[in-house]
Amino acid sequence: MDWTEGYIAIDWGTTNRRAYRIDVNGKCVDEVSDGRGVLTLAADDFPSVVAATRQRLGDVPMILAGMVGSNRGWRETHYIDCPADVATLADSVLWIEPERTGIVPGVAQRRGQPDVMRGEEVQAIGAMASGALGGAELICHPGTHSKWITMQEGGIVSFHTAMTGEMFALLQSRSILADQMEGTAVDGSVFRNAARASLAGAEPLAELFGIRARALLQQGGSQDAASLASGLLIGADVRAALRSRPSAKEAPIALVGRDDLCALYAAALHEAGRTSLFIDGSQAFLAGTAALVEKL
User: Fold this and answer.
1) Segments forming the whole domain that contains residue 91
2) pLDDT for 62-100, tens place per residue?
3) What is the DSSP string of the chain?
4) Which residues form the signal peptide (predicted)?
5) Could you say which of 118, 143, 175 is where a domain stops?
C-alpha cells in the first residue's frame, strides 16, 4: 500500500486508544477515541479491532505505537537501545502485515539505571521533528509513569521514569489517606507550598502521613488533601530530575502531554526557578508518526 495516499496512526495505550486518519496532505481529517486499551482485549481480538478501525477511517496503511507492542498487547516488539532517533525507530518497526500494518518498537536504556518506554518515544521524536522544542533538550512527559527524556543530536539519548502518577492514584484509591483525598489536585497555594517543601528536601513519605494526622487532630480539612499530596509527589519528582541533570540549568523544559497534568508540573518547575513550555501530546504524537512514515 502507498503511504503517500494517507494512513492511520494509532496511539494504543493500556486503558485507552486513539486512532487518527491522516490524509494525502499530512493533515488529520478524522479520529476515533475509545476505551479499548490493550488490557481490555485478548490477543485474538486485535485483528478484528484493527479491521473495524479501517472500516471506520479508511482502507489505508496503519502505524501503531504504545502498549500495543508490549507483552500485554497484540505482538511484542523488541526495545531498541538509546541513543534512538527516527531512523532507528523506523528501521525496527514490526510488520504484522508487510508495509501495511506496523508496530513501532519501544526504547530501552540498559546502561546505568535500566529503564524502558513505549509510546512516549513517538511523542519525543515528534516534538523534536516539529521544531516545537525550540532550545529545550529535556522533555518531561507527565502521567501514570512520568518520563524525563534528554534529547540531543536528533534523538533520545537517555531517560528515566518515576511512578509519580501511579503513586498518587494508589494513595487516592487504596491507601489510609483515601478518605481525605477525594478531591482533584489543582494548582494553588496548597499545591505550591507542598511542592516547595519537596523541592527543599522534605521527606514526602513523612509529609504524606501528615494529611491523616491533621484530619484526626482536626487541624485541617480534606478539601485540599489531593492538592497537597500531588504537590509533594510532583515536587519530589521535579527535584530528582533536576538534580540528575545539572547541565540543563538554563534551557526551558518541554512538558509534553495533557494540559491539566502539564500545568501542575509547570507550577512545580516555576517554584524550582525553571521555565517550561507546553506541547500538546496528541500533536506531538502526530508529528512523530509523520516523521516515522517518511522513513518507512
Assistant:
1) 3-118
2) 999 999 999 999 999 999 999 999 999 999 999 999 999
3) --GGG-EEEEEE-SS-EEEEEE-TTS-EEEEEEES--GGG--GGGHHHHHHHHHHHH-SS-EEEEEGGGSTTSSSPPPPEESSEEHHHHHHT-EEEETTTEEE---EEE-SSS-EEESSHHHHHHHHHHTTTTTT--EEEE-SSSEEEEEEETTEEEEEEEE-HHHHHHHHHHHSTTTTT--S---SSHHHHHHHHHHHTT--HHHHHHHHHHHHHTTSS-STTHHHHHHHHHHHHHHHHHHHT-GGGSSS-EEEEE-HHHHHHHHHHHHHTT--EEEEEHHHHHHHHHHHHHHH-
4) none
5) 118
